[in-house]
Amino acid sequence: MTISASFKKRLKYFELDISFSCPSENMMVMIGPSGGGKTTIIRILAGLDTPDEGKIIFGDDIWFDSAMRINVSPQKRRLGYVFQDYTLFPHLTMYENAAFAAVNKKEVYELFELFKIGHLRNRKPHRVSGGERQRCAICQTLARHPRLLLLDEPFSALDTITRRGLREELKNLKGSLSFPIIYVTHDINEALFLADEILPVVDGKNDDGWMQRMITREPSDALSARAAREPRLALVY
Amino acid sequence: MDYLALYVTLKLALVTTIFLMLMAAPIAYVLAYLRFPGKSLLEAFIYLPMALPPTAIGFYLLIVMGPKGFAGKAWGFFTGDSLLFTFIGITIASIIYSIPFAVQPMKAAFAKIDRRLLDAAYVLGLSKRSAFLRVIIPNSLGGIAAAAILVFLHSIGAFGVLLMVGGSIPGETKVASIAIYEAVETMNYRAAGMIALSFIPISYVFLLLINKLNKDSNI
Fold first, then answer.
1. What pTM did the predictor assign?
2. Rounded Cα gap, residues B15 and A56, in angstroms
3. pLDDT tens digits, B141-153
4. Average pLDDT in the B103-109 region?
5. Nearest to A75 among B126, B135, B138 (CB)
6. Which architecture characterizes domain B3-218 according to CATH?
């Protein structure tokens, strides 16, 4: 199964105009400066925002086609979406959250063991750490057996050490997942570590030269260029 | 002491609260989440009973629910009865009188819910209706309870509206606030004092409850 998308949407400061495709068992990392439209692209793929024109096709299914007036609702796209910060349901325990839309409730226990949060299953989300919440959010998503996984800066609100740990767990997990994964970040090191394929997005458009410019000649600011060039500094930034 | 009037009051307040909570939830949902032209006009209209003198509301209800009004005519056509001076009549009046007190706290509670929680629910496959029942309602219990208590207390205190459409029929439309008024009119201060006194602990306990709910939901 391959997700292919090509669409335009007029935003406040620029026009989103992008096309890409990502096959199964592939992780595409979307990278670029904040406010460049990455989250909007993810929301459009999820069906939470509507593009002005274009097409989104998943395998044989048309999710969106402006010419044919097709727009499949987010409920019917059956995808996994892990948000930037915690969108676990505050009134449910960790287990109830993960089992919220689970295909098979038994799997939730296995996922909890895999992500090492089994001992927290009866806690409410506000009683656990940020890293544990994001682990639970990933369990919630995987338990639904998604056809496509969208991760929108899932670890960016976490401290550096936790972030690195989760990054590695995700990389290890990737081999066992059979669907396409789209991962959003603004961290170059993270992109290089995780990606099978990198899609730089600047002001709503694909800009393949962006990474190189960031690392070499024309950094947007001196600090981020240094952080990109010297991996140890990335611990600080 | 006029226990019958107290009983009618509590029955009226309870029935009003139950019906109004069911009616106000969808209205509050529409006001909190949907955008459409004329929304602020509609919202102001819904809150109007809060700003009008109760006797003015009662006057219009009297006209509408009277034998020549459309509600009174329709009711008469289907049941052969009058809507005025009946328990059902004062229940309708009491519901209209208290609508703002149900809608406003519920709308505030619904609007406070993070929109991303709803996005997450939709992506997880929940329809708008299930998201309302499984996400919005459980996360606004504080606001819903506050609305219920406010409505209950406000209906206990209703006087002008009820007097206009219900009059004072013992066991049917004579509520405690009207009983107090009548007792004073007949110089029976002792009876008036007894009923008045019985309100204080009821209202006080419910207000304490509201305070506690507000504190809990602010954490």
1. 0.84
2. 52
3. 989 999 999 999 9
4. 95
5. B126
6. Orthogonal Bundle (1.10)
Residue B28 predicted with pLDDT over 70: yes
Give this complex's ipTM.
0.87
* Distance from the A228 Cα atom to the nearest Cα atom in chain B, whole angstroms: 32
What sign results for the dihedral spanned by CA atoms B1, B7, B8, B13? positive
- In whole angstroms, give the CA distance from residue B18 to residue B91: 11
Q: Average pLDDT in the A19-33 region?
A: 93
Strand order in the sheet with A27-31: A70-71, A61-65, A53-58, A2-10, A15-23, A205-206, A197-202, A27-31, A181-185, A149-152, A80-82
| A85-89, A94-98, B119-123: least confident range | A85-89
Amino acid at A90: P
- A119 lies in some domain: no
**Which of the residues A42, A89, A127 would you substitute to probe the B interface, choosing the one with the greatest number of B C-beta atoms within 10 Å?**
A89
Domain range list for chain B:
3-218
CB atoms inside a 10 Å sphere around CB B187: 9
Structure tokens at A225: 């260029």
Report the distance separating Cα B9 and Cα B94, nearest Å. Answer: 11
Report the b/e string of B109-125 with b at 16+ CB within 10 A: bbeebeeebbbbbbbbb
Q: Work out how many domains chain A is built from and give that number.
A: 1
Task: Compute the radius of gyration of chain B from its Cα atoms.
Answer: 20
Cβ pair A81:B120 closer than 8 A: yes
Element (DSSP H or E) covering residue B205: helix B189-218
Q: Name every residue in A having a CB less than 8 A away from some CB of B.
A: 43, 46-48, 73-75, 77-81, 83, 87, 89-91, 100-101, 140, 144
**Chain A residues inside the 8 Å CB shell of B123:** 46-48, 74-75, 77, 79-81
Q: Is residue A196 part of a domain?
A: yes
The answer to the question of residue A209 being in a domain is: yes
Owning domain of residue A206: 2-79+146-235
Q: Is residue A64 part of a domain?
A: yes
Query: CATH number of the domain that A164 lies in?
Result: 3.40.50.300
Mutate to test the interface with A, among B124, B132, B135 (most CBs of A within 10 A): B124
